[in-house]
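Tutorial handout. Part one gives the primary structure; part two gives the three-dimensional structure as tokens.
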Amino acid sequence: MAALKKVTVVGAAGNLGQCILRELIASQYDVTVMSRIGSTSTFEGVAEQNVIRGEYTPEFFRKALLGQDALVLAIGSGALDAQKAIIEAAAEVGVRRILPSEFGGTPRRAKDISNPTSLNAIPFNHGKKTIADHLEKVVATHPKTTWTAVVSGPFFDWCLEYDLFGCNIKNRRATLYDQGTTRFDCTNIGTVGKAVARILSMPDKFQNERILISGMAVTQLEILEALKHAIGFKDWDVSYLTAESLRQEGNERMAKNDFNGVLDIIGASLFQAGNGSYYSATGNLVSEQLGVKDDLYQTVKKYVHSL
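Part two.
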């Protein structure tokens, strides 16, 4: 396959989208950003003529994507279904590689890991599966178009910032679930951006594949030790709960329309063994091929020093 140089990003204003955009620009791709008309978002490093704004209609998508080599979708979990029309338009105008908004999460299919519980571990996994199934059907009838879905686990540094790992740095308090010994894979959000840029630099690899990357595999206990080391404060107030209680709390919050409960559910999926979150144990990672890796102590130290 010829080189993929012209890349359109949708969702470039979001946390992940910004990281992907930055890495694509640094790697000297010809980047276009698609944005809704009326949006006030700005995109550092992207010339205004390369920001295509309009009403999100099939006609707009086809026009915006004509002549593009690749499409990267970094759409938030609340709008996953919006990808369907964009994917269809991309295939119709001959975009050669599509990366759907699969980032984060855990593997769901037998090719990655035979684990039926992983689909139900996080509510929006069903939405991602719906998009993945739709993408495969579209590509099946448009053979010039291929896809690559990237599973990265949770974004470690983002989760640390939002206290998803149960460690409150300010108050020196930690809540460990299921003893804090369950290992899970995760990747810094900037590392995911690097992976995207490198995937697109290898057009003959990862065609029509769901690939697994992992910056590191850690436990809550290891995260707590890294925090103690970075802060230089050893005495923390540590309590212990079950991951199942965290899941139930998240479900109760969601039932009351408190959608922050999804963070509890995500946390429970990581801290409870058997949900597929420690997928590097399968040996199916492509992180080494892509040259992406994170370091727990360096990441934690950087975060602590930013406070």
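Part three, for discussion. Confidence is low (pLDDT under 50) at residues 109-114. The first helix runs from residue 15 to 26.
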